[in-house]
Write a sequence for this structure.
């Protein structure tokens, strides 16, 4: 019986990958466990092992093919004596057998954000740059660190798997080669310890970038982030500055359950003495990370795993820095203001497109910084639209949307034509099941519905 | 002890080779006496001001433990980093910080080291290499490890002195720090000031193994133990430890066995130990009385000279207390300063 070998999903967020190399050829006898090919994901190069036995009938995707979608048939395995037929192609509806032992990957019902459309020109509210290049968020973060490490020898990177492994999410790829073990430091799995060590190094005159594999693990270290990094300047009467960046992916990834899917934006934004930023685009990521590394204060830099692989235009110059504390109007509109940060900016922009089809002209604000919060940009937008919908992945209770609502009440109550509405994650721990996870996370449709509600439509 | 490959390319410190490693000279011993007496009198006065309501909140006195910090800080060099827990007044004085500025911080005044915004547990002096004053038990241990990391990164020849109590040794972050310091052969001296009680819980009731000094062994730390009531012994141990560290041989853990005469903090009646235990320590092991006897025996000082020192120290402490009461409270505008570096 013919068995299709499919492109496997090799990580929770992988949707496509590169078929780097075939290690078998057509006609080879395949036994279970034999390494068939090398697959490059955006995180690592992995070996694809055979599950079923047979003869490799036909290779459907040649070596070197980029962007092979997960679950696409890449080869056909024949039972002995069987012949490959012309119809045994990629479009065969025959039940596919996954090539790896993992359960079949069904994409979560949550819409996986497609790469954002490249902007035709520089956004109006940013200085005009003459040359732009398209980069993934991952590359932008790496370049920001590399540029700042070249610029300032006191900048160093530490964290789990940042060096020899090239980053658990490949963010630090190539940095070890360029900057050596002296400045790219692989730590043991010891978040509390290395966060405190980083604070001490900052007190000692260095500028550490501390990577948490994800911010979920930073809960082990939060005492040092808050009690040691954020408060010591005040407690020392201004003597003890702590120039340090704590960075890593924050919020939900995909199908990793409650302990690995949480947004910490409101936790850190609560703390005087910290700056908190949450980039969306590659430009945000690069410009804000450079600003964070140069900042003389502790900065919490909240990335998003799902955005790492998405590409955006980025100004092609080492001078590009995004000042902390400035929001960006990503889309102009006059009927309702959608305020979002991180991955929710993309969802808000999609919602704005859908709203436009219904004749509602939405303005989209990308907060970029959560502390300090650019209230002026929010209020300026409100004065135009009279309506605000806040969008965040985190829980509503004491969240960023709650803070924005309070700020707007205090500063611009008279401009509100409708109650501020929050689109947030549901007030439950993140479920694993694909359908429940999609329900727990705020979706484009939720933003559309909320915007219509505040427009009384 | 096996050397980490990282340590091999570290040239032996010229400073370490040049420093005198012998016992303290009579002049040094006299200075130790002054330093210990200053801490004792300062703390007594702080206790008095606390009783008068001039010092608020938590206030942890160092009386009884003076020999530890005085002996060890005599092994420090300019550029080294020193940090400790919230029982920090003695360490600041031993680092050469101004008693006036320390006392004024205790009273929460503008003339304090943190301009009144830190209090007893939170004071710093970059100038003197004192990095706090940390209020969370054991938090100073990774921070001190980070300062050692910075010394190694900058190749400035410095080392960190991180003090913590027997109560802190059961915090996980201590061992996270030991592991990284051992792994990377950092120039760090960890000092356990074992005063026998973590607040009201004796070491025996808190630690499965009471030999605290052995706890660095699994992490490639050189492990040492010393009588923390004898300043000469402490200095000797400190010199050995510092020479080891400055030569690039990696971190050291030193347990100093000591005793605090007062309660954990001002509000602690210390009912968890007997009066006899305390009395025995005071009469038989007091570090200041002990050194006084040594100096008399050696005829380094006579009674008249001791009286002169007592008066001189008393005057310094009275001046500090006076300053701490006369210094104004911080300007209301200070509420909003020092939150972020502009």
């Amino acid at each position: 019986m013919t068995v299709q070998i499919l492109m496997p999903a090799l990580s929770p967020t992988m949707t496509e990958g590169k078929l780097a190399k075939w290690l078998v050829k057509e006609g080879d006898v395949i036994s279970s466990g034999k390494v068939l090919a090398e697959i490059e994901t955006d995180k690592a190069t992995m070996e694809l092992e055979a599950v079923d036995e047979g003869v490799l009938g036909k290779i459907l995707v040649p070596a070197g093919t980029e962007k092979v979608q997960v679950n696409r048939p890449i080869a056909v395995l024949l039972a002995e004596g069987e012949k490959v037929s012309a119809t045994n192609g990629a479009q065969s509806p025959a039940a596919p057998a996954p090539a790896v032992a993992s359960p079949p990957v069904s994409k979560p019902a949550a819409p996986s954000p497609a790469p954002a459309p490249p902007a035709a020109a520089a956004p109006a509210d940013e200085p005009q740059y003459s040359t732009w290049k398209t980069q993934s968020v991952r590359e932008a973060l790496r370049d920001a660190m590399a540029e700042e490490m070249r610029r300032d020898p006191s900048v160093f990177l530490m964290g789990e798997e940042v060096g020899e492994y090239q980053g658990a999410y490949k963010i630090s790829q190539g940095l070890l080669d360029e900057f050596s073990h002296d400045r790219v430091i692989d730590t043991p799995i010891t978040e509390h310890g290395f966060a405190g060590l980083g604070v001490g190094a900052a007190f000692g005159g260095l500028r550490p970038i501390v990577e948490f594999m994800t911010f979920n693990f930073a809960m082990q270290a939060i005492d040092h982030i808050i009690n040691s990094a954020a408060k010591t300047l005040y407690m020392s009467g201004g003597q003890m500055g702590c120039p340090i960046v704590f960075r890593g992916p924050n919020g939900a990834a995909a199908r990793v359950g409650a302990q690995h899917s949480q947004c910490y934006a409101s936790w850190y934004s609560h703390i005087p003495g910290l700056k908190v930023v949450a980039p969306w685009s590659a430009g945000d990521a690069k410009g804000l990370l450079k600003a964070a590394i140069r900042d003389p204060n502790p900065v919490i830099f909240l990335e998003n795993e799902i955005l790492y692989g998405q590409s955006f235009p980025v100004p092609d110059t080492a001078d590009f820095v995004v000042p902390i504390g400035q929001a960006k109007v990503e889309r102009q509109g006059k009927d309702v203001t959608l305020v979002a940060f991180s991955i929710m900016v993309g969802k808000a922009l999609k919602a704005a497109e859908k709203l436009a089809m219904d004749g509602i002209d939405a303005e989209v604000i990308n907060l970029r910084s959560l502390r300090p919060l650019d209230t002026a940009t929010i209020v300026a937008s409100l004065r135009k639209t009279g309506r605000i919908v806040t969008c965040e992945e985190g829980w509503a209770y004491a969240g960023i949307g709650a803070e924005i609502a309070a700020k707007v009440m205090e500063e611009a109550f008279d401009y509100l034509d409708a109650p501020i509405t929050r689109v947030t994650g549901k007030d439950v721990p993140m479920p694993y099941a694909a359908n429940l996870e999609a329900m727990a996370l705020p979706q484009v449709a939720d933003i559309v519905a909320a915007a219509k509600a505040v427009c009384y439509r | 002890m096996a050397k980490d490959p990282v340590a091999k390319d570290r040239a032996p410190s010229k400073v370490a080779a040049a420093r005198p490693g012998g016992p303290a000279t009579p002049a040094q011993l006299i200075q130790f006496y002054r330093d210990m007496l200053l801490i004792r009198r300062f703390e007594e006065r702080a206790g008095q001001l606390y009783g008068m309501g001039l010092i608020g909140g938590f206030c942890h006195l160092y009386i009884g433990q003076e020999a530890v910090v005085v002996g060890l800080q005599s092994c420090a060099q300019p550029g080294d980093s020193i940090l400790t827990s919230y029982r920090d007044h003695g360490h600041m004085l031993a680092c050469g910080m101004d008693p006036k500025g320390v006392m004024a911080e205790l009273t929460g005044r503008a003339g304090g080291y943190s301009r009144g915004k830190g209090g007893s547990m939170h004071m710093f002096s970059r100038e003197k290499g004192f990095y706090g004053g940390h209020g969370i038990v054991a938090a100073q241990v990774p921070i001190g490890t980070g300062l050692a990391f910075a010394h190694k990164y900058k190749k400035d020849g410095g080392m960190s002195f991180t003090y913590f109590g027997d109560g802190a040794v059961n915090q996980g972050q201590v061992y996270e720090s030991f592991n990284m310091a051992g792994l990377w052969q950092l120039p760090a001296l960890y000092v356990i000031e074992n005063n026998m009680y973590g607040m009201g819980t004796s070491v025996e009731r808190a630690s499965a193994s009471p030999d605290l000094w052995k706890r660095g062994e699994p992490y490639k730390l050189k492990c040492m133990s010393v009588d923390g009531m004898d300043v000469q012994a402490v200095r000797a141990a400190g010199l050995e430890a510092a020479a080891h560290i400055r030569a690039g041989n990696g971190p050291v853990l030193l347990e100093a066995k000591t005793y605090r005469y007062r309660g954990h903090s001002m509000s602690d009646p210390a009912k968890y130990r007997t009066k006899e235990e305390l009395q025995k320590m005071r009469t038989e092991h007091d570090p200041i009385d002990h050194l006084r006897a040594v100096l008399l025996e050696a005829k380094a000082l006579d009674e008249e000279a001791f009286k002169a020192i007592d008066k001189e120290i008393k005057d310094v402490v009275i001046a500090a207390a006076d300053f701490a009461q006369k210094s104004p409270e911080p300007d209301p505008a200070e509420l909003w300063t020092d939150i972020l570096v502009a």
